[in-house]
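Title: Comparing notes on inverse folding

I've been comparing how different people in this forum approach sequence design from structure. To keep things fair, I'm posting one structure and asking everyone to reply with a full sequence. Here's the target:
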């Protein structure tokens, strides 16, 4: 029975893929496959919060449109054809068997509307980034991964409902000109000039948060690096415009997804 249900599910995905593919450009299909892979990578390496985490990406050649996860899927279930297209006003574009949650399309539309330089954004609630988001001092420069973000993290107080358009606009305003933000008592938002950049920096940010929680839990005296060292590391490793589809970490990630979860491109 389980095997038959799985076969039926795969067959349904193939049907949906065939329905979506002819209606879009080759560039959009490639983008959809990469965005689906990014969701699978986050799910593979990070503990995510059921259906409530999502990644967005502007549609190539259509900067006023973006793709985002459907509301009834876990990240590990995302496929190219299940991604949903929205405009920057948060209105769904085209026909689809799926829809996104207001929390997804409002947040991502607001960020992309406010910042034309942002191409992709990752929003997660992992145990580690949730814990750091609840700490008054935020992310400390305790590791090389954390130093990438030294004095480069915006903060957003947990005061309004950011699932609404008004709340999402306030969130986007709080981001300012930064690329990473701690949503206090809520989680993290990591943006990039490309999808690979947003994904890779989110991965580093997650590692930094995990390391901080572990170090603080250890109870010993912490080694706090000199401010000049932190600033130098941030300048060297925290720059935007560095990661793209040819970056080794992204290429390795795509190869991993191709091997473990080949249905991402259905």
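Reply #1:
Here's my take.
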């Amino acid at each position: 029975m389980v095997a038959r249900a799985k076969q039926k599910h795969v067959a349904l995905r193939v049907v949906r893929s065939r329905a979506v593919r002819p209606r879009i450009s080759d560039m959009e299909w490639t983008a959809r496959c990469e965005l689906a892979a990014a969701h699978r990578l986050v799910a593979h390496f990070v503990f995510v919060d059921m259906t409530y985490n999502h990644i967005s990406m502007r549609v190539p050649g259509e900067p006023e449109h973006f793709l985002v996860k459907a509301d009834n899927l876990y990240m590990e279930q995302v496929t190219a054809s299940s991604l949903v297209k929205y405009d920057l006003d948060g209105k769904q574009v085209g026909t689809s068997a799926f829809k996104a949650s207001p929390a997804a399309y409002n947040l991502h539309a607001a960020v992309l509307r406010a910042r034309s330089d942002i191409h992709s954004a990752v929003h997660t609630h992992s145990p580690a980034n949730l814990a750091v988001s609840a700490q008054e001092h935020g992310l400390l420069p305790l590791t090389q991964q954390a130093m990438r973000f030294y004095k480069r993290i915006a903060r957003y107080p947990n005061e309004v409902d950011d699932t609404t358009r008004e709340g999402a606009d306030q969130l986007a305003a709080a981001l300012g000109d930064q690329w990473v933000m701690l949503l206090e008592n809520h989680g993290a938002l990591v943006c990039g000039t490309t999808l690979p950049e947003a994904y890779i920096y989110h991965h580093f940010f997650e590692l930094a948060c995990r390391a901080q929680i572990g170090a603080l839990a250890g109870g010993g005296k912490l080694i706090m690096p000199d401010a000049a060292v932190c600033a130098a590391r941030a300048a060297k490793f925290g720059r935007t415009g560095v990661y793209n589809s040819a970056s080794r970490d992204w290429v390795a990630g795509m190869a991993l997804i191709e091997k473990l979860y080949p249905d991402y491109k259905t």
